[in-house]
């Protein structure tokens, strides 16, 4: 990296220099021994805010980072040849995790010690046996700042006594793949660098979360400890080692500390081949009368799409859209819904659109499923996968153990569980709540209305898994169709499901980046309203069955979470739900959910917004949403 002048960075976490070559043991055992030059972690003292310079060093024009004389650190140990420094720091406000990790604007994470504090607070929150001399996995969605953050995380892991870090090449590994790798390699846990479906780039979002040894997101008992430790942290332990070359597969050793850069796809692909019948899916994708498109949205699944859909399943290369992961997702918003995946929607709704379309999000854990001119709601999607799983997916050849959904997700899955006589669970929003049920053998298939679907093959929702599940269903339904015969379509499968189980009309209104004060006041207003509500209250043609603020008691460990969403449930099964999302990086996202069950097949093809209009009008009246938020229109309607 060449620069013509010196750069000063004040109070901003410098970007790590990942281009250096370091001691690397590659596949054939040869060793490369480059110069030792490394990113220095920013330090702080309670009294002085240090300043740092990017300094041009030697004729090679490589960069090192040197702290000013006001900053100091202490070498505390040199175990097995590694010097560990303790860097003074001080607490930083606002490091409480949301539904799935800590998410902020990337410039916040680039501030002095912001990321380092949180990572150290995590280690301070774990028992030593959870990481000392252990194996941790590191991956991310490829967004801006991931490579630099990887270096910081690796050095702090080494500083705290971790034995080995397994990191995806270029710092890339999808959230589902991290969970899969943790489980296959029997790792102690793993870090996921992602802000999920939120946009990326220098002016946008970044995030970090930790998953435990079964691959599941850390429970609230741990995330609460992390937050508590961010409020009292005083020092960071960091190993004085060079940056790791993330562009090369292989093993790098410093004393007894090891970093292995791995192919982010191989372990995950192996698992998918175990779960699904790839020959069955290949028979569908190779048909001349079936056309398929997958939109990776320039996000992490771009690294997986070609190896899986093209190389293994025989899809044409031009069936992959936006298949190159980019740090800013091609200036897009990697959220697979009808608004942000509009290009795919337009293709699928065109006169001669493909038979099957799908998209995934920033870190690969969400999905959207489309047929030609037909959108499958996430609530219907998980219900249909569950209803067809035993016949179409080898992993479920003995039938699923149980089914579960997040509270705001429609009741379509409930009806499948009832008909199949399966255990059923309703949990708060957040995939971590499914993990205990899976680990206890109570749950196989689950989903969230927020485009998340998955099963107990891992402990995260899984976008590509959902696409493969749908392809399996379509392939299974068409396996005996001869060329020229009309194929069973996505729309056919959904409409047959409605005819059997009834249709749950469902819609979600998202109001993104609202002023937090107004959003919180609206929720408090609603909580006051439900405290005064009683069974039998009439709201137009709707009669109230109950109103509450959802509370969940985990049937496995007895833990309790409260205030998970305000619900108005009516005697005909209709529901109105309000909650604030924990996945944004700024302001508040207000979500309003509307659901109505319709058993009459003659009404199943009504437009959802038309069918739900009376309930939508009632929801605005109950919440005074427009008054509290000042918003006339939602950002997204699903």
Name the features.
638 residues; alpha+beta; Alpha-D-Glucose-1,6-Bisphosphate, Chain A, domain 3; TATA-Binding Protein; 3 domains; seven-stranded mixed β-sheet; 17 helices; 29% helix; magnesium ion binding; isomerase; A-D-PHexomutase_a/b/a-II; transit peptide
Give an account of the 3D structure.
With 638 residues, this protein is an alpha+beta fold. The chain has 3 domains: 84-262, Alpha-D-Glucose-1,6-Bisphosphate, subunit A, domain 3 (Alpha-D-Glucose-1,6-Bisphosphate, Chain A, domain 3, 3-Layer(aba) Sandwich), CATH 3.40.120.10; 268-501, Alpha-D-Glucose-1,6-Bisphosphate, subunit A, domain 3 (Alpha-D-Glucose-1,6-Bisphosphate, Chain A, domain 3), CATH 3.40.120; 503-637, Alpha-D-phosphohexomutase, C-terminal domain (TATA-Binding Protein). It is 29% helix and 25% strand. It is built from 17 helices and 33 strands. The strands form 8 sheets. The chain has a 7-stranded mixed beta sheet with strand order 8-12-11-9-10-15-14, with helices on both faces. It has a 7-stranded antiparallel beta sheet with strand order 26-27-30-31-32-25-33. Strand 26 and strand 27 form a beta hairpin. Helix 2 (114-125) packs across helix 3. The longest helix is centred in the last third of the chain and has 17 residues, at 516-532. The chain is globular and about 75 Å long. The model is unreliable at 1-71 (pLDDT under 50).
Q: Strand order within the widest sheet?
A: 8-12-11-9-10-15-14
CATH superfamily of the largest domain: Alpha-D-Glucose-1,6-Bisphosphate, subunit A, domain 3
Radius of gyration from the alpha-carbon trace, in angstroms: 25 Å
Poorly predicted residue ranges: 1-71
How many domains is the backbone divided into?
3
CATH fold category name of the largest domain: Alpha-D-Glucose-1,6-Bisphosphate, Chain A, domain 3
CATH architecture of the largest domain: 3-Layer(aba) Sandwich
Straight-line distance between termini: 45 Å
Mean pLDDT: 87
Text of the CATH class of the largest domain = Alpha Beta
Q: For the report, how would you describe the main beta sheet? A: 7 strands, mixed
What is the structural class?
alpha+beta
Care to count the β-strands? 33
Strand content: 15-25%
User: Could you estimate the helical fraction of the residues in percent?
Assistant: 25-40%
The number of helical segments is 17
Backbone shape: globular
């Amino acid at each position: 990296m060449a620069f013509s002048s010196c750069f000063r960075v004040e109070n901003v976490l410098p970007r790590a220099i990942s281009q250096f070559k370091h001691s690397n043991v590659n596949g054939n055992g040869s060793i490369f021994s480059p110069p030792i030059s490394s990113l220095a972690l920013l330090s702080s003292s309670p009294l002085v805010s240090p300043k740092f310079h990017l300094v041009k060093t030697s004729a090679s024009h490589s960069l090192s980072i040197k702290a000013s004389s006001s900053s100091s650190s202490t070498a505390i140990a040199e175990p097995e040849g590694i010097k560990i420094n303790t860097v003074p720091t001080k607490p930083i406000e606002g490091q409480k995790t949301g539904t799935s990790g800590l998410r902020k604007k990337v410039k916040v994470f680039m501030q002095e010690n912001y990321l380092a504090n949180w990572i150290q607070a995590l280690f301070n929150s774990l028992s030593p046996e959870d990481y000392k001399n252990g194996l941790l996995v590191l991956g991310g969605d490829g967004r801006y700042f991931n490579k630099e953050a990887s270096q910081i995380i690796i050095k702090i892991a080494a500083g705290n006594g971790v034995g080995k870090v397994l990191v995806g090449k270029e710092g890339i590994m999808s959230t589902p793949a991290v969970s899969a790798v943790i489980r296959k390699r029997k790792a102690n846990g793993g870090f996921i660098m992602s802000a999920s479906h939120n946009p990326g780039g220098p002016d946008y979002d970044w995030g970090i979360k930790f998953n435990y040894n079964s691959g599941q997101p850390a429970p609230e008992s741990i995330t609460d400890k992390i937050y508590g430790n961010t409020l009292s942290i005083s020092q960071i332990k960091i190993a004085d080692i060079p940056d790791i070359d993330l562009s090369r597969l292989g093993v790098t050793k410093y004393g007894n500390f090891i970093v292995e850069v791995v192919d982010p796809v191989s372990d995950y692909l192996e698992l998918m081949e175990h779960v699904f019948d790839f020959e069955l899916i290949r028979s569908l994708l190779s048909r001349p009368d079936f056309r398929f498109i997958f939109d990776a949205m320039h996000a992490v699944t771009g690294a997986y799409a070609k190896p899986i859909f093209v190389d293994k399943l025989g899809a044409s290369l031009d069936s992959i859209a936006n298949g190159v992961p980019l740090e800013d997702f091609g200036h897009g918003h990697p959220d697979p819904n009808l608004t942000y995946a509009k290009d795919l929607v337009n293709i699928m709704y065109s006169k001669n659109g493909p038979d099957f379309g799908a998209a995934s999000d920033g870190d690969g854990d969400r999905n959207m499923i489309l047929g030609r001119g037909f959108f499958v709601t996430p609530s219907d999607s998980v219900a249909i996968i569950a209803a067809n799983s035993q016949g179409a997916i080898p992993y479920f050849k003995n039938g699923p153990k149980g089914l579960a959904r997040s509270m705001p997700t429609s009741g379509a899955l409930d009806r499948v569980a009832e008909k199949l006589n399966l255990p059923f669970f309703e949990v708060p929003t957040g995939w971590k709540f499914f993990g205990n049920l899976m680990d206890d053998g109570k749950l196989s298939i689950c989903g969230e209305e927020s485009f998340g679907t998955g099963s107990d093959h891992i402990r995260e929702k899984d976008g590509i898994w959902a696409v493969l599940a749908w392809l399996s269903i379509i392939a299974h339904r068409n396996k005996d169709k001869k060329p020229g015969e009309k194929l069973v379509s996505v729309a056919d499968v959904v409409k047959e499901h409605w005819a059997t189980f009834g249709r749950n009309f469902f819609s979600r209104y998202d109001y993104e980046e609202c002023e937090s004060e107004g959003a919180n006041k609206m929720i408090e207003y609603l909580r006051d309203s439900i405290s005064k509500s009683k069974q039998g209250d009439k709201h137009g043609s709707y009669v109230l069955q109950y109103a509450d603020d959802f509370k969940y008691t985990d049937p496995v460990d007895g833990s309790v979470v409260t205030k998970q969403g305000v619900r108005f449930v009516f005697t005909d099964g209709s529901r109105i739900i309000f909650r604030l999302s924990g996945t944004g990086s700024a302001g508040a996202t207000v979500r309003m959910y509307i659901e109505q069950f319709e058993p009459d097949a003659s009404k199943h093809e009504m437009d959802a917004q038309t069918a739900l209009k009376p309930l939508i009008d009632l929801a605005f009246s109950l919440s005074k949403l427009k008054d509290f938020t000042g918003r006339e229109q939602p950002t997204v309607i699903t």
